[in-house]
């Protein structure tokens, strides 16, 4: 019921799936060790009662 009718399409979809998997596995890591602390945030929410 769910078989491919075209071998070219099946090969293309398999290639795309493997490329997506390799891209997911080789995601570059971001260096977040800058040394400075996180910013201090003050949030005021809603009207005063």
How are helices and strands ordered from N to C?
H
Low-confidence stretches: none
Fraction of residues in helix: 25-40%
Count the E strands: 0
Query: How much of the sequence is in beta strands?
Result: under 5%
Structural class: mainly alpha
**Major beta sheet, specifics?**
none
Straight-line distance between termini: 64 Å
Q: Using the CA coordinates, give the radius of gyration.
A: 24 Å
- Summed over residues and divided by their number, the pLDDT gives a mean of 86
Overall morphology: elongated
> What is the count of helical runs?
1
Layout of secondary structure:
Layout lengths: L6 H19 L24
Q: What does this entry look like structurally?
A:
Helices cover 39% and strands 0% of the residues. It has 49 residues and is mainly α. The chain has a domain at 1-28. It is elongated and about 65 Å long. The chain starts with 6 loop residues before the first helix and ends in a 24-residue tail after the last helix. The model has no long low-confidence stretch (mean pLDDT 86).
What would you say about this model in short?
The protein has 49 residues and is an all-alpha fold.
Keywords:
single chain, mainly alpha, 49 residues, 0% strand
